[in-house]
Write a structure and sequence with these properties.
The complex is a heterodimer of chains A (278) and B (124). Chain A has 278 residues and is mainly alpha-helical. Chain A is built from eleven helices and two strands, in the order ααααααββααααα. In chain A, strands 1-2 form a two-stranded antiparallel sheet. In chain A, α1 (3-24) packs antiparallel against α2 and α2 crosses α11. Helix content of chain B is 74%, strand content 0%. In chain B, α3 packs across α4. The chains are: A mainly alpha (278), B mainly alpha (124). Chains A and B meet through α1, α3, α4, α9 and α10 of A and α1, α4 and α5 of B.
């Protein structure tokens, strides 16, 4: 295949991944690695490198839109980034130690989890009555614009949330993904933050987390420019377009379809990992 | 100098992010156009992993390739700009917290910055 055909196919696929990722809120990065590995026959390490740079691009691109709404919490994000960046360093080191089979199997499990978590109805956390001393000392509180004026909130179970975030960072560094689903789990379920605050703060954090493993990926030679170029440009274009049309489209059916695609890819990744094809 | 609110820090950060992403995308695109100037040459083999050489995996290597306008080096430089964008975001946060006189969060964001610098120094 000539470079122009290969790059165009990859670019078109990445636009679709970025668009669907933004529309469904599942993130485009999560499908890039399995698509590159299973459809394009790319080695999993190159795929992880290309995916990671596209994750940085979409996270920073989307953050611009969210910040204007005043929903993300910069202090909670920064505090938890201590956990995710340290986790990302660990993950990036593990990528070199663990065989491709195991990375594929772990990837499959994470894909299944991401898809299933999109079906769950996340609780709308009621503002907590009691004061959490640790959260107060760390200033892990804020307000977001609600229908009847600003709503205030404070984080709970801070150590648990911090621990899950370390795990999210490790997965991000190991698999070259944003692991937004796990980050939202830590903030929404563990720390009982409002859902909108969780998702937007998570998005804000993804770029910094990914940057922490990107340096190590680069030095290991995982980032191939000719592969990363169409992927990064495609995912970025798709996700920017997706965030713009987000408000106008009904996404429920689309989300089910995309989740189904992710489940199929997850099973295929696990199967390929177990049978030694990857 | 008045102390900025969280929202004001956020907005200055958002502007910087937009700038970083746009610049990185333009550089990667320019490198991509140069790379595809021989559109019918065969696609490199990505099936077997062969770590990129120092010219594409170290910052000094990328810069020296950039001087020769090597397409791959230009793309890689664009990707470096992309990686630098979240790092710059953290630097902005350190400054923003310092202006808010929030010592705790100057410390927290400095730790994050040190981790990022450590990772990037591996590619140096």
């Amino acid at each position: 295949m000539s470079v122009i055909v290969f790059s165009s196919l990859l670019f078109a696929t990445s636009i679709a991944a970025g668009l669907l990722g933004a529309l469904t809120g599942l993130g485009g990065g999560v499908v890039i690695v399995p698509v590159l590995v299973l459809l394009f026959g790319v080695d999993i390490r190159y795929a992880i490198g290309a995916s990671l740079v596209s994750v940085i691009a979409t996270s920073s691109g989307a953050a611009v839109a969210y910040v204007r709404e005043g929903l993300s919490n910069i202090r909670i994000g920064m505090f938890l980034e201590v956990a995710t960046t340290l986790g990302a360093l660990l993950g990036a080191y593990l990528t070199a130690k663990i065989s491709g089979h195991w990375i594929a199997i772990i990837f499959g499990v994470v894909l299944l989890y991401s898809a299933l978590s999109s079906f769950r109805q996340w609780s709308s956390n009621a503002p907590a009555g009691q004061v959490n001393p640790l959260a107060q000392r760390l200033e892990l509180s804020g307000t977001y614009p609600g229908p009847n004026g600003p709503v205030s909130y404070t984080a709970e179970r801070v150590p648990l949330g911090f621990g899950i975030m370390f795990g999210a960072g490790t997965l991000s560094g190991l698999l070259g993904i944003g692991s937004g689903a796990v980050k939202v789990l830590a903030m929404d379920q563990a720390m009982k933050l409002p859902f909108k605050v969780s998702t937007t703060t998570s998005n804000f954090m993804i770029g910094v987390t990914a940057a922490a493993s990107a340096g190590i990926y680069l030095s290991r030679g995982y980032i191939d420019p000719t592969l990363a170029m169409p992927v990064m440009l495609g995912v970025l274009a798709g996700s920017l377009f997706g965030t713009h049309i987000l408000v106008k489209t009904k996404v429920k059916t689309l989300r089910y379809m995309f989740a189904f695609v992710i489940i199929v890819l997850g099973i295929e990744m696990m199967y390929s990992g177990i049978t030694g094809k990857i | 100098m008045s102390q900025p609110t969280d929202q004001e820090v956020d907005i200055s950060v958002a502007g910087m992010l937009r700038f970083g992403i746009t610049l990185a995308a333009i550089v990667v695109f320019a490198g991509g156009v140069l790379y595809l100037r021989h559109p019918w040459s065969p696609t490199p083999n990505y099936t077997h992993f062969r770590a990129e050489g120092p010219e594409l995996s170290t910052i000094s290597g990328i810069f020296s390739g950039l001087l020769h306008l090597c397409p791959k080096s230009i793309i890689q430089f664009g990707l470096l700009l992309l990686i630098a964008t979240p790092v710059a975001r953290v630097v902005f946060c350190v400054i923003g917290f310092a202006r808010q006189r929030n010592r705790l969060y100057v410390l927290v964001s400095s730790i994050v910055l040190l981790v990022l610098i450590y990772s990037l120094s591996k590619g140096g």
